[in-house]
Amino acid sequence: MLRRSVLLAATLGCTLATGAAAQHPGNPHSRFTGFLFGDITFVATEWDRPEGFLIGQLVGHGNALLTERLSFFGEVSVTARDDSYGFEIERAIVRYDFADFFKLSVGRYHTPISYWNTAYHHGLWLQTSVARPELIRIGGIFLPVHFVGVLAEGTFPASGLGLSYEAGIGNGRGEIISRPGDAGDANRRPAGVFGVSLRPEAIAQGLEIGASAYIDRITTETVAADELIGSVHAVWQGSGPELIAEYVHVQHDVEGDAERTSNGFYVQAGHRLPGRLASLIPYARFERLFVDEADATFASLEDYDAMIGGIRWDFETLAALKLEGRRDRRQGGDWMNSLFVQVALVVPSFGSVGF
Amino acid sequence: MRTATGFGHLRALAIAIALFALPLLAGRPLHAQQSFPVAIVVHPNVSIDNIAFEDLRKIFMAQQQFWSDNSRITLLVRAPIATERNIVLQRIYRMSEDEFRQFWIAKMFRADVASGPKIVYSSEMARELVNAIPGAITFMPLDAARGMKILSIDGKRPGDPDYPLR
Questions:
Q1: Residue B83 domain-assigned (yes or no)
Q2: Span B57-63, mean pLDDT?
Q3: Does any CB of chain A come closer than 8 Å to the CB of residue B36?
């Protein structure tokens, strides 16, 4: 397993390193660009969890524009485990761009049911904070992080509202509900996702508001339930401020049981300091998760509250140091303190460094 | 759940690491302000002659990736240090060099775009590629754009006193 993972990582690295050299001389549109994202986090915590230095995910991402309209996006990750490394295909998308307002793709996605899930993916360097909010945690079950199927998306740039949409149908959650149905749907009812967002630049540069809905049939060894998820988000990311707020409502209609609802939200605010301190972003986040204890689908989930404060320092263009304090609790228990120091970076393939 | 044994030492270590880095907080030099007209140049077959500044911004920000005839827009951007690049970053992107680079990495990682801008290393290279690639758009000093298809911005030519890109 370890050997295979190392080989895969090496292959990935070599592929990315070829970067701009992969342009096809006969096709002016053909291009390949790749990135590697990595992070190392030092953790000290009052929780009964591993402390010390943690090797985070090594994430490889490649974009290949094959023709004027056909492209491929791939994202793979290598994650440190106790005795090995875990390899995962995070995203693999083949897309045909008919026009700005209609792009059709098929593959494995980060489900567009949460802003965070599709804005930051697995690149910790991209996000201001050390970790994702609990409601969209990688490996979590509150929201389906991945989606396998077909997706139509588009934007209407001529509209002053900056309207965009996404609509997809495919395999819903797998029998292990933290995972998608990579090898086929867990039942005969496909999952559907639809989202719209507005970016009204005329009102405020960097403002985005949106809403999404997701429906699925969950089938596990012990539970069968219809799932309906609704989410709304508001984001403002200008050259200085960063405000991200998201609310999610999850409803499960369990066979032979009452309707169960759970909710979660977070609000994160940060601000890039002005002038010579522009490499610093102090930030804070408050988040809560309310889980219906009687929901058999979420039997392993607990209520969660967290308050986070930190500072991100972009000490180089492609690397950031984050110092973050977290105070959180589960199921209304005692508040626990944790401290994180994280170095996160991105390595672009040469040829893209000229951005 | 366990007690806070050892937490204080580790917290101190973490803070020390952060403090150790503080002396490196030197900030980054600001680009000197220079002013000359920067022409927006397109492939000869691009069907427009004039563009609204906000539409130009949408193209450079990759919010619009196709022309009205549905051909793909290929953005050519000068490599860092060139003064015309600084003007475009300041006027169109409203970003610093670091923000600009981070913007494109994020854009590609999110699969918002199939590729980032093509980087050109001279005005000559920009002239050659913008004429060779259908749907291409780039920018260059007005003096270097003679004989090329230059777009007006909001009806203003690069030589006009109130031209927005200088």
A1: yes
A2: 94
A3: no
